[in-house]
Design a protein that fits this description.
With about 210 residues, the protein is mainly α. It contains ten helices and no strands. The protein is globular and about 50 Å long.
Length: about 210
Amino acid sequence: MEPADFDPSALMLVAELVGTAVFAASGASAAVGKRLDLFGVVVIGVLCALGGGAIRDVLIGADLLLLTDWRYPLVALVASLFVFRFHPALSRMRPTMLVLDAAGLALFTVVGTQKGLDFDLAVYAACIVGVLSGIGGGILRDVLSQEIPAVLREDFYAMAAAVGAIIVAVGARWESVIGHWTLALTAIAVTFVVRLLAIRFRWQAPKPNF
């Protein structure tokens, strides 16, 4: 049961905006590292923050959130400008950024999966949408900055997202018993922990021997 005096939707909105800012900072940092100008930094920062959600909305046929809610692009823009201005200091905060990035991945994956289920997608399709929602922005960031996408190099980035998406999609059939927010927060926590463990212990899938 959910507490009657608690509004989890407001907390989720704040968490989504924080995740948007973190992903924008990640994209903007990559652009700064490539010595792009202000416009390039902002473009890559905003695309990294909003790209996953845009891919999700296109796949499920929903209105693009970045065009219907001004708060998300504004937060992405401000975060990108902040990184452009203060990037020397932020470069010393890489461990913190990795933790926040893991939180953003977990949050966006779960929200994306739930939205896919809300649009009556099959379980496997909702999982795909959820994973793309979490990793899509990072793929756009890496492609635009001419890097091999991190999702193809850091195996447990996409796998961590897949774990969270499966928890949401499979657990949805018992949502009336578990509770909507309990299920969501559990999936977010598991995805977050799996990603941090992968970073800490350098988990990798097998690679070809040469």
